[in-house]
Amino acid sequence: MTDGAGIGRRVREHLARTRARLSARARARPKGPAARDARPDTFSTAILEAVNVGVLACDADGRIVLRNAAQRRMSGVSGGDLLEHDHVWTRLRIVSAEGAEMEVTSSPLLRALDGEELQDVSLRFGPAGCADHELRDVLVTARRITAEDGTLLGAVAAVTDVTSERRAQRELQASVAFHDAVLAATPDLIYLVDPATNAILWISRNVFEGYGYTAEQLRDMGSDIVAAIAHPDDIETLTRANRQIREVADGEVVRIRFRVKDAGGEYRWLSRQVTPFARDASGAVTQILGIAQDITEAVTAEERILAASLHDDLTGLPNRRLLLDRLTSALSRAARNGAHVAILYCDLDGFKRVNDTSGHRGGDTVLIATAERLRATLRPEDTIARLSGDEFVVVLEPSPQRTPDQARIDALRAADRIQGAVREPVAVDGVQHYVTVSIGITFADAAADPAEALRDADRAMYRAKSRGKNTSAVYDDTFTATIARRAHIEGTLRAALTRRAGALRGAARPTGVTVPAGAGGDPSALTVVYQPILDLTSTRVVGVEALARLHDDAGEAIGPDQFIPLAEEVGLIAELGRHVLQTACQDLADLHAVTPAWRHLSVSVNLSARQAARSDLVHDLTTALTRSGLAPHLLTLELTETALLDAGPATMAALHTIRAHGIKIDIDDFGTGYASLRYLAELPVTGVKVDRSFTAGLPHDRISASIVTAVTGLARDLHIDCVVEGIETEEQLQALPPGVNGQGFLLARPMPPAQLARFLQHHHARQ
C-alpha cells in the first residue's frame, strides 16, 4: 500500500520551493484577486501528474488551486467541472469511515485550513449523488500551507486510493466470518497436527463445546492433545495412521476410527479423515489436516444390531451363532491346556403345557425365569445359550487343573444343580407352573467339530428324555449304533408312508369279497393289525383296537415302542396317525360289508398328544368316516392321560367338537397319569382303559387289585365303558370284577384284517 504521508511530505517540500519562487513573483504582481491566478510551474505540474497519489491544494479561501490526474480519477469529477466552483467538496459525496455522510465544512482541506493536521484519515468519496458501491476508499493526509511570515496560503491534501485493498480486506473478513460460522455450526472436530511431534497446531472450538474441555485443560495436556484424550488401545492406530499419511499424495485421505475421552470421562467414537496440508521444500509433510466426525451413536447402533444378531431377544442369552463361536474358542483353549469341554444340552419337560394353559406370555415368563436360574447356578465364565423354543445349551469353561474324570463329575454336578433350579415353580398370574429339564452331556476335545459336538449333546438329551424325563444322559460310543438304528427306523418309516400313500391313491378298494382289503400282497412295510376287545361276561367281541406295525425291507419287525416315539420326534406322527385312522375306518367298514352280524363292531384308534393338538384333527376324522362310510359312533379315539395333561384350550374345544359328531373318547392307560378324575369331569369321556401295569399284579398284588376294582366301579357309576388291558393269564381273567370288557393275549393277539375275519367267524361259530 502506498505511503500517503510520505507522498504528502514530498508534495509539501515541492510546494514550499514553488511557494518561494511564487512569493518573489507575488511582490511584483498586483495585490488582490489577481494573485489567485497563481499556478505551479510546468515542471512541478508534470511531477504531480505522474504520481499515483491524488494531490489536491486550495488557497486560503478554500478554492482549488491544484489537482492532479490521480485525484481526478479517484473523484470522478473532471478538472473543468471542478474549477467552476469555489470548493471541490460541493461536487463530491464524502462518507466517513463509520458510514456517516460528511458536510462540506468537514472536508479534509477545510479542516486543514482551520489548523487541524490529518494523518491517513479513512474516508470514502465519489461524485455527488453516486451510489454506495461507486464510492472509493481513500486515506487522506492534509496540512495547511503558510508563508515564511506565517501568512496562511492554503492547504494541501494527499489522497491514497485503497479501494482494492479495502475490498480484499472486506472479502477476507467475510470469508473468515463465513468459515467461522461453518466451523461453529459443524459438529465435526477439525484440527491441524504436526506429524513429527503429534502436536496440535490448531483445533476447532467445538472441542470445548462438544467434549466439555476448557482451554486451560487442553493446555495442561501438552502439545499432543489427541494422545492425551485417546483411548489407550487406539494410540497405536493413531501413530500408524500418522506414519502412513506421510507417504500419501496430496488429496489422498487416510481414514481411521478411534475413541477419545470427553471431560466427563466417557469415551466417544470418532471417524477421522486426514490428508496432507503443508509440506516443506523437500516435499515432506509438515502439517496434517484432520476432520473427525463423532460416530458414537452410529457405533452404539451397530453394537446393538450386532448384539441382537448374536443374542436371543427374549432372554438376552447368546444364540446359536454366538454359542458356536464361543464353543470354538473353548475348544482352542482346551487344546492348549489338554482339557475337555463339557457341553450340556437342556430341554424343558412340560413346557408345552405352560404355553397351552397360560399362553405365550406364560411360556415367555418360564423361559426368562429359566435363563435367570441358569445364570445364577453356573459360573460367570461358563456360556449359557438359548437355541430355540425351550432348548438351552451350557458350555462349561474347561479347567486345566481338572482331570477328565473330575471334569465328568463337574458336568454331572452342574446338571444336578440345573435340574434342581429349574424344577422350582414359576408363578404366572397367580398360577404355579412346574417344569423339569432333560439334559444331554457330551465331552469334546480340541479335534471335535463344534457343530457335531452340539449334535452329540442333543442326541444324549433325547436319550435322557426317553428314560422318563427330568434326568441326564452322557453321550458315549454306543450312541453311534443308536443313531444308525434311529436313522434306519426313520428311513424305513418314511419310505413306508410314501409307498402306502401311493398305494391308497392308485388302487380302488375291492368290493364283494369275503376277505377285507389288506389281507395280503401289500407291498408296504407299514401295516395295521387289530386286537379284539371282548365283553368278559358274554365273551362276545364288541370291538377291535387298531395297532400300527412296521417291518424293514429285510422283513425285521420294528416295535411300536421304537418307531412311534421316533415319529413324534421327527414330525411324522400326524401322517402316521392319519394313515392308521383311514386304514382302520376302511377295514372295519369292509368287515361290516362282508358279514352283517359284525356291524356292531367298533374300532379304537390311538391319538397322540401332537395329533390331538393339530388344528386339522376334526377334518381328518370326518374325512376318514366319509370315505369309508363308517358310522361315527363306531369310532373310538384313545388318548393317554399324558396327552390330556398337555392339552390346551384349543385341543379341549376340539375334543368336545369330536364328541358332538358322535365319535367316542376313551382315556387310555387310566390311572398312570396325574389328572384322570379331572378329565372325567371336564370331557365327555365315553370310556376308560385300565393300564396293563395294574393287570399284571393280579391277583396277588393287593394294591393293583384295589385299583382295578376302584376304576371299574367308577366307570360303572359314571355309566361309561371300561376295558381292562393286558390280560395274559387265566388267573388275571378270573380276578376281574364282572361287567367289564377285556383285551389281552389270553383272549386274542393282534392280527391282520384277513385273520381277523377268520377269528370272528370262528368265534361266532363257537358261541
UniProtKB/TrEMBL annotation:
Pfam families assigned: EAL, GGDEF, PAS_3, PAS_4
Residues covered by the EAL domain: 508-764
Domain (PAS) ranges: 47-83, 175-252
Domain GGDEF: 339-477
Ranges of residues in domain PAC: 119-174, 254-307
InterPro entries: Biofilm_reg_signaling (IPR052155), EAL_dom (IPR001633), EAL_sf (IPR035919), GGDEF_dom (IPR000160), Nucleotide_cyclase (IPR029787), PAC (IPR001610), PAS (IPR000014), PAS-assoc_C (IPR000700)
Matching PANTHER family: BIOFILM ARCHITECTURE MAINTENANCE PROTEIN MBAA (PTHR44757:SF2), DIGUANYLATE CYCLASE DGCP (PTHR44757)
Record's protein name: PAS domain S-box-containing protein/diguanylate cyclase (GGDEF)-like protein
Species per Swiss-Prot/TrEMBL record: Kineococcus xinjiangensis
